[in-house]
C-alpha cells in the first residue's frame, strides 16, 4: 500500500516548485509571438504556427538541454539556465529563419499591426502593413518578446523536470528519467493550452493588448498544475 | 570524451538534422499539411476545385512526433533483441512511414469526399502518385531524427530513452517546419496570382493558384517550388537548433565542472544576442528595400 499522505508531506516543496514551473510556462506562452494560420499566409504578425506547437517545440528543446545538464550536475540554477538557453536558441533560430522566408520568400517587411511605433526601435509600423492584413513577419519587439518567452518556458520546463527527478523513490534512475520527462512534457502541454484561450490564435508579444489577460491564465495554471503536480509526485514517489 | 570526437559527432548530428528538417517541410508541401492547408480546404467552398493533395492529418508537430515515436519504439525494441543498429533504425523508420502513409490516404479521402457538395472530385491518380512521395519524405525525416537521437544517447550520453528523445525532436522539427518552410508554401506558392510582396489580402482567401507551370497544379509541383527555398531553410533552422543547443555543451564540456556549465550558458546567450541583432539588420534592410505600402497622411497634408 502506498503511503499517500507520507509521500505528499515529504515532497511538499517539490509540489510547490512544479506548480511554480507550470505558472512560468503559462506566462512564457504569452510572450511568444504566434500568428497561427493567418501568419502562415503572411496575414498576421508573428510566427506562422499554433501557440501550443511553438511553445512546446521551444520548451521541449529546453528540456533536452536541461536533461543533459541534469545528468552531470546537481546545481538547480545551472539546470534551469541550461533549459532557458536551449529554448531561447530554438525560438530565436525559428524566428530568424521565419523572417528570412517573410522577407526573401514572400517579400513583406516585418511589421506589427498592434502598435503605431515599435516600443524598442521606435520605428513607424502602420505604414508598412499591407492592405487587408494584420501585419507580417517578426519585428524586433516581437523577436525580443519571443526570446523572453523561450527563456521563461525553458526555466519553467526545467523546474518541473528537476523537481520531479529529485523525488525520493526506489526505482532505477534510468527509468525515473523517462517517467519524469514524460510528466514534464505533459505539464508543459497543459500549461501551453491554457494560455491559448487568452491568445485566441494570434498574439504579437508583450506589447499586444491581449497580453493584459495574463493574470487569468496564471491563476488557472496554478490550479491545474497543482493538481497535476500532486499526481506526478504520487506516481513517481510511489514507485 | 575527446573534444574532437564530440565535434565530429555534433557535425554528423547537425547534418542529419538538416536533412530531417528539409524533408519534413517538403513532406508537408507534397501532402499539404498544417496551416496553409486551410486554403486548400477552403478553395472548393469558394468554387475553386483543385488537384492538390489535401491531408493535414493533424498539426505538424504531433504528426511528426507520432512518426518519430513509432520509429524510435520499434528501433528500441529491435535493438534490445540484438538487431544491428542500422537495420533497427531503418525498420523503425519504414514502419513509421507506413503508418503515416495510411493516415495520409484516409485523411485525403475523408477531406475530399466531404467536399462533394462543392463539386470537389476525388482523384485516385493523385493518391497513387503522391502517397509514395509522402511516405518517402516521412521515411527520411524519421530515419534522420532517429540517427540524431541515437547519437545523442550513445555518444553524448544523453539520459533520455530513444523513443522519448525521438518524440521531442519530432515535436520540434514539426514546430520549426510549420513556422518557417510552410510560410513559403502558404504565403507565396499558393498565392502566386498576386504581385510579389504586395501582401495577401484576407479577401483573397481560398483563391489559390490551380494552374501549374505545365498542366494543372498538384502537390508535387508545390514541393518542386518549395524545394528551392522553403525546404532548405527549414533544414537549416532545425540543423541550427539541434547543432547549436548541443555544440555549446561540447565546446564547454559540462562534465568537467559547473564553471564550464555556466560558460556554455553564456555562450548560448551570446548566440541568441547575435540572432537578435541579425534580425534587426534584416528588418531595417527589408524596410529600406520594400518601402511603406501607404503614404503618411500628415506628410501628404503638409505637402
Structure in words:
- The complex is a heterodimer of chains A (about 240) and B (about 300).
- Chain A has about 240 residues and is mainly alpha-helical.
- Chain A has one domain (about 5-235).
- Helix content of chain A is about 65%, strand content about 0%.
- Chain A has helices spanning about 5-10, 10-30, 35-40, 50-70, 75-105, 140-165, 175-200, 215-235, and strands spanning about 110, 135.
- Chain A has a two-stranded antiparallel sheet.
- In chain A, helix 4 (about 50-70) runs antiparallel to helix 5.
- The longest helix of chain A has about 30 residues, at about 75-105.
- The termini of chain A are close together.
- With about 300 residues, chain B is mostly helical.
- Chain B has one domain.
- Chain B is about 70% helix and about 0% strand.
- Chain B has eleven helices and no strands.
- In chain B, helix 1 (about 5-30) packs antiparallel against helix 9.
- The radius of gyration of chain B is 22 Å and the shape is flat.
- The termini of chain B are far apart.
- At the A-B interface, helix 3, helix 4, helix 5, helix 6 and helix 7 of A face helix 6, helix 7, helix 9 and helix 10 of B.
Amino acid at each position: 500500500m502506498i503511503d499517500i499522505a507520507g509521500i505528499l508531506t515529504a515532497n511538499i516543496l517539490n509540489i510547490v516548485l512544479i506548480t511554480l514551473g507550470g505558472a512560468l510556462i503559462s506566462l512564457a506562452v504569452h510572450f511568444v509571438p504566434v500568428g497561427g494560420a493567418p501568419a502562415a499566409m503572411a496575414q498576421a504578425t508573428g510566427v506562422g504556427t499554433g501557440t501550443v506547437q511553438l511553445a512546446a517545440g521551444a520548451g521541449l528543446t529546453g528540456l533536452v538541454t536541461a536533461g543533459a545538464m541534469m545528468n552531470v550536475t546537481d546545481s538547480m540554477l545551472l539546470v534551469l539556465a541550461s533549459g532557458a538557453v536551449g529554448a531561447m536558441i530554438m525560438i530565436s533560430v525559428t524566428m530568424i529563419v521565419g523572417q528570412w522566408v517573410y522577407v526573401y520568400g514572400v517579400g513583406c517587411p516585418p511589421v506589427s499591426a498592434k502598435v503605431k511605433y515599435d516600443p524598442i526601435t521606435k520605428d513607424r509600423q502602420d505604414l508598412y502593413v499591407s492592405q487587408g492584413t494584420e501585419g507580417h513577419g517578426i519585428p524586433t519587439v516581437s523577436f525580443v518578446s519571443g526570446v523572453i518567452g523561450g527563456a521563461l518556458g525553458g526555466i519553467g520546463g526545467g523546474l518541473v523536470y528537476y523537481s520531479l527527478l529529485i523525488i525520493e523513490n526506489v526505482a532505477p534512475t534510468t527509468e525515473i528519467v523517462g517517467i519524469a520527462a514524460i510528466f514534464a512534457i505533459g505539464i508543459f502541454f497543459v500549461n501551453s493550452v491554457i494560455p491559448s484561450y487568452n491568445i485566441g490564435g494570434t498574439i504579437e508579444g508583450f506589447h499586444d493588448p491581449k497580453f493584459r489577460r495574463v493574470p487569468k491564465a496564471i491563476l488557472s495554471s496554478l490550479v491545474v498544475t497543482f493538481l497535476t503536480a500532486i499526481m506526478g509526485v504520487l506516481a513517481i514517489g510511489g514507485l | 570524451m575527446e573534444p574532437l570526437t564530440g565535434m565530429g559527432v555534433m557535425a554528423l548530428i547537425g547534418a542529419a538534422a538538416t536533412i530531417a528538417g528539409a524533408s519534413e517541410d517538403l513532406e508537408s508541401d507534397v501532402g499539404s499539411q498544417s496551416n496553409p492547408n486551410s486554403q486548400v480546404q477552403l478553395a472548393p467552398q469558394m468554387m475553386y476545385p483543385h488537384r492538390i493533395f489535401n491531408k493535414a492529418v493533424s498539426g505538424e508537430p504531433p504528426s511528426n512526433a507520432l512518426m518519430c515515436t513509432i520509429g524510435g519504439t520499434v528501433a528500441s525494441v529491435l535493438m534490445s533483441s540484438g538487431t544491428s543498429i542500422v537495420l533497427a533504425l531503418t525498420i523503425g523508420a519504414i514502419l513509421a512511414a507506413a503508418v503515416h502513409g495510411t493516415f495520409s490516404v484516409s485523411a485525403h479521402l475523408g477531406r475530399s469526399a466531404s467536399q462533394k457538395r462543392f463539386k470537389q472530385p476525388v482523384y485516385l491518380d493523385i493518391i497513387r502518385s503522391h502517397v509514395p512521395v509522402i511516405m518517402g519524405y516521412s521515411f527520411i525525416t524519421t530515419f534522420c531524427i532517429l540517427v540524431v537521437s541515437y547519437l545523442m544517447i550513445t555518444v553524448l550520453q544523453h539520459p533520455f530513452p530513444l523513443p522519448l528523445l525521438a518524440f521531442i525532436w519530432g515535436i520540434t522539427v514539426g514546430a520549426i517546419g510549420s513556422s518557417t518552410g510552410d510560410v513559403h508554401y502558404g504565403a507565396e506558392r499558393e498565392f502566386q496570382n498576386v504581385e510579389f510582396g504586395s501582401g495577401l489580402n484576407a479577401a483573397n482567401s481560398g483563391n489559390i493558384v490551380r494552374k501549374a507551370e505545365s498542366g494543372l497544379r498538384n502537390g508535387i509541383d508545390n514541393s518542386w517550388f518549395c524545394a528551392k527555398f522553403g525546404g532548405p531553410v527549414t533544414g537549416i533552422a532545425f540543423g541550427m537548433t539541434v547543432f547549436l543547443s548541443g555544440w555549446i555543451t561540447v565546446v564547454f564540456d559540462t562534465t568537467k565542472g559547473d564553471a564550464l556549465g555556466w560558460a556554455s550558458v553564456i555562450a548560448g546567450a551570446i548566440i541568441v544576442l547575435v540572432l537578435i541583432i541579425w534580425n534587426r539588420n534584416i528588418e531595417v534592410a527589408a524596410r529600406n528595400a520594400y518601402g511603406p505600402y501607404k503614404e503618411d497622411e500628415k506628410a501628404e497634408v503638409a505637402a
